[in-house]
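Support request, please re-run this one:
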Amino acid sequence: MLDKSDAFIALPGGIGILEENFQIVCWAQLNIHHKLIGLLNVDGFFNKLLSFLDQTREENFILHSARKIFIFTSTIEELIDKLEDFVYEQDLVATQIGWSKRSSSRKRKLDLSLHL
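Re-run finished. Output below.
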């Protein structure tokens, strides 16, 4: 799913929806991908989540770039427009981490020598 998508759109749902969305945000913070999460806020379903994210941002528990990954709208047309217009802000801390399959498949030599 990650490799074949340009963005993610979530509809109102339960714990699974929240878990998947936050996993995608964590992956973005770890520089695994640069994709957005669109939340279709039907009848204000995600309003409290939006407030929670804004509060965590205001209290410096999350970075601004992590908060901006979530795009909230009440119509699918507006959501698609915002996703298309969005400019991704890369998290500068995570840019040093490499998660490509090539870099993770290289064997690393461990130094197991004993130094007395």
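The mean pLDDT is 81. The longest strand covers residues 36-40.
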